Amino acid sequence: MLLQRRNGVRNRRGGLLWREAVDGWLCLLPWLFGFVVFTAGPMLASALLSFTEWEILTPPKWVGLANFADMLSEPLFRLALWNTLYYTVLGVPVYLGAALGMALLLNTGLRGTAVYRTIYFLPSLTPAVANALLWVWIFNPDFGLANLLLNSLGLPSQKWLFDPQLAKLCFVLMGVWGAGQQMVIFLAGLQGIPQELQEAASIDGANGWRRFWSITLPLLSPTIFFNLIVGVIGSFQVFTTAYIATGGGPQNATLFYVLYLYRNAFDYFKMGYASALAWVLFLIVLLVTLVQFRLAKRFVYYEGEEAR
Amino acid sequence: MRDRSLPAAPTQATDHHTNLRRHRAARRIALVALGQAALLAGALVMIVPLLWMLSTAFKKTGQEWVFPPVWIPNPIWWRNYPEAMAVLPVPFQRYVFNTVTITLGATLGTLLSASLAAFAFARLRFKGRDTMFVLVISTMMLPSIVTLIPTFIIFRTLGWLDTFLPLIVPSWFGGSAFSIFLLRQFFLTIPRELDEAARIDGASNLRIYASIVLPLAQPALATVIILQVLAHWNDFMDPLIYLNTMENYTVALALRTFQNVRSQRINYLMALSSLQVLPIMLLFFMAQKYFIRGITLSGLGGR
């Protein structure tokens, strides 16, 4: 009798567990289908396509490594890669620095910080197209705001987006303007730092500068690391602002990688070559991310890690 | 402080302390002033471009080509708005309608598919679950460009080019890995006892999802809605690739078209741009809390 009941309970529980597994997979089904059809499948397909020559209307032709060899001999590819690296290496630290500076300012608890927080955040909500159009107008060599500012400081006007030397810097400035989202993330990180630590250091005679380097920065390093990873991945994929603002010019100075890829795929219909480009970008981003994770082991401080 | 209460405190030391205190107070005031100045300078940098957009949008044609520029247009020429819309080949409402359709369709899909997946990840136990979750996390880091071309081919083969389907359908299949992640993290904070109690009462998992988890997760769902609306309203690359005829264009594409044909009409262009910005700003002021929360959570995910 007792045994029977126990078995009954076990069966019932077994049934529940089985039910849970079935329901679990059912809940995952839409995502799983999407993952296979829109992520894993296409990744595999683009890997295969990268070894073909394909103009959509004719069947793909296997060409081996020809697409990759083409890249190496194609000056525009090298230029696009160079532009993107330049923009990333210069831009990401600059706008992360700006975001961190804003967050530190807002974290001082000075009067009016709630209003300032909103103001600093607003530009990052501007849609990329409106954003690019606005900045083209600001950088207008004859009537733009940027030259107004320079002239009022007694400096000569610049050609900005029309100057191959300056065009990439303009994109960095646009990035600084839109750094509000990273700023909010930094703010959250700063607010997670226990106040007692700062006070204790203060009592021990550490000045503001010292407290920043010895407490704030180490404790904020996971947040900095996160913003860095996401920032670099995003920066490698810059497209819309360049497409709208400069179309890659002047003299291809803002021909960024994804813009180059887009043109090959959707203007010249070189789908095989564009797939190869996509995979090369993916591998570069993966490599850069892995390197950052390696470096993070040395520079990022995770609280409570020693306890483990 | 203490030496004042000591009767035999040496006067010299007291003087020294007051001096020090005065010095510190002065330093503090200077720092606060410096901080306020920096805050204000930053605010100017952030707000002036937006004001410049508005200022240009309300300038009568001709006034925008004055240098140095006039900040407050005289007269304030609101007619730029109807005039700019009249230049567009299709009524502007049409672009708004298209964008709203895509945004709503995609957001609804994400809400449903992502919350179902998140429910499985957070509340149900089964073999393979954690492996699947690792897959979700890794797609968050994947540059979307890698899957672009084959996805385009799929939609082309299905005959979906120049329809809204390529912009909506992926969202119904868990298109936003980050939304799944965000919802899962929130679902984990809902006490498990609630599920157990409902289960003892004979509630099915579907019922637990619909009657317990979803109602308690409203803040997280609101955050997902906000982030999705933002992403789809602002999106440019996907509509550019999938939509071909003017009637199907989104607001972003309409702006691009206008830029192509009438780039000299900068006051019109700024007027139309401000119309793309406006709904997002309104949404932000209505749901500021959820915006900040969503962005913040996306950062804490990295911790």
Main structural class of chain A: mainly alpha
Write down the CATH class of the largest domain in chain B: Mainly Alpha
Mean pLDDT over all positions of chain A:
89
Strand content of chain B: under 5%
Walk me through this protein's architecture.
The complex is a heterodimer of chains A (308) and B (303). Chain A is an all-alpha fold and 308 residues long. Chain A folds into two domains: 2-49; 69-299, MetI-like (MetI-like fold), CATH 1.10.3720. In chain A, 72% of the residues lie in helices and 1% in strands. Chain A has helices at residues 2-49, 66-73, 75-106, 113-121, 128-138, 145-152, 167-177, 180-191, 195-203, 208-236, 240-245, 257-267, 271-299, and strands at residues 52-53, 61-62. A two-stranded antiparallel ribbon of chain A has the order 1-2. In chain A, a hairpin with a 7-residue loop joins strand 1 and strand 2 (61-62). In chain A, helix 3 (75-106) runs parallel beside helix 7 and helix 3 (75-106) crosses helix 8 (180-191). The longest helix of chain A is centred in the N-terminal third of the chain and has 48 residues, at 2-49. Mean pLDDT of chain A is 89; it is low at 1-9. Chain B is mainly alpha-helical and 303 residues long. Chain B has two domains: 2-57; 84-300, Orthogonal Bundle (MetI-like fold). Chain B has 15 helices and no strands. In chain B, helix 2 (11-57) packs across helix 14 (266-286), helix 4 (92-123) runs antiparallel to helix 11 and helix 5 (129-140) packs across helix 8. Chain B is flat. The chains are: A mainly alpha (308), B mainly alpha (303). At the A-B interface, helix 1, helix 3, helix 4, helix 5 and helix 6 of A face helix 2, helix 4, helix 5, helix 6 and helix 10 of B.
Descriptive key words:
heterodimer, A: 308 residues, mainly alpha, MetI-like fold, 2 domains, 13 helices, 72% helix, globular, disordered N terminus, B: 303 residues, flat
Topology:
The complex is a heterodimer of chains A (308) and B (303).
Chain A: H1 2-49, E1 52-53, E2 61-62, H2 66-73, H3 75-106, H4 113-121, H5 128-138, H6 145-152, H7 167-177, H8 180-191, H9 195-203, H10 208-236, H11 240-245, H12 257-267, H13 271-299
Antiparallel strand pairs in A: 1-2
Helix pairs in contact in A: 1-13, 2-13, 3-7, 3-8, 3-10, 3-12, 8-10, 9-10, 10-13, 12-13
Chain B: H1 2-5, H2 11-57, H3 80-87, H4 92-123, H5 129-140, H6 145-157, H7 165-168, H8 177-188, H9 192-200, H10 205-216, H11 218-234, H12 237-242, H13 251-261, H14 266-286, H15 288-300
